[in-house]
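Blinded run. Sample ID left blank on purpose so nobody reads anything into the name before looking at the predicted structure. Input follows.
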Amino acid sequence: MKKNITMANNYTIPRIINGCWQIADGHDVKKRQTKLDELFLQYVKSGLNTFDCADIYSGAEVFLGNFKTISTKQKYKLCIHTKFVPDLDTLITLNKAQIESIIKRSCQRLQCDYLDLVQFHWWRYEEGDYLAALNTLMALKKEGLIKHIGLTNFNTKHLKQILDHGIHVATIQVQYSLLDKRPQKQLMKVAQQNNIKVLAYGALAGGFFSFKWLGKKEPEIAELTNRSLIKYKLIIDEIGGWTKFQALLSTLHAIAIKYQISIPELVIVYLLNHTAIDAIIAGVSQNFTHNPLSTLENIVLSSEDCQKITSYSDFILRGDVYDLERELSGPHAGIMKYNLNKL
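Blinded prediction complete.
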């Protein structure tokens, strides 16, 4: 398994990125500074030195800024990717000064002079001018405040528009998993043609791809303990429901036993070796006990096992990337928090 990917200016990161949505408010990962510092150091020592956060992940940028100081003292270099997610209520009035203030605030929180990667999200295409916002990000890049610009949750049509506008895009972060293959329809091809790295979140379905859920009774939404599980339970509903998901999970469990790895590890190996995904963003966990890079890099799945995974995960959600989530009357939009980026 290829361990790293390299972008412009020789910017190299591992193909497994530590996702930090789970340390923001609304999740059940404990935030005791010492425990998380120890956990994150285990990740970094294992070679997983890249962390994904956002300006709207309450507390995540500040935590990572403090952790960066700790890791630097131990001579470990971190790569920290954040997101610029302007509030829905400000899309129409958003201006250059506001964008610059938010980017500088992220620098301050992360205790750095520039941001390694800023991933840009826009709630509604029809409101405001996201191309003007991207032009401002490009200007800030020229000023040295941003090293790379990426996108988050843009569909193929709007990705093409952005490229036609002359915006250089280094990465695009999209939801992709055995349950959600919407990026395969069109977006991955466009990304490959333009040397854009595809970063997949949701690969482990918020924790549903785990032995913990095998054979379990279908949970009610109200029973789920955090927003990640709620989000991906809605995806399970979209692909045909709990029974279908259990069939896939059972197949994955049987294959994982064969290779003496866990279900999440099997999913990661499959996606990184047998799809066009460049890197996976895997949510941080309190249960980290080993080095996933050394554990996973030498595992080779048989063609028969790959075919089993493919046949049991042949689910096609309707629409392009993030189109379902933009349907205002739908259940996916109903769990969104649209205004978390007040200055």
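Unblinding after everyone has recorded impressions. The chain has a mean pLDDT of 92.
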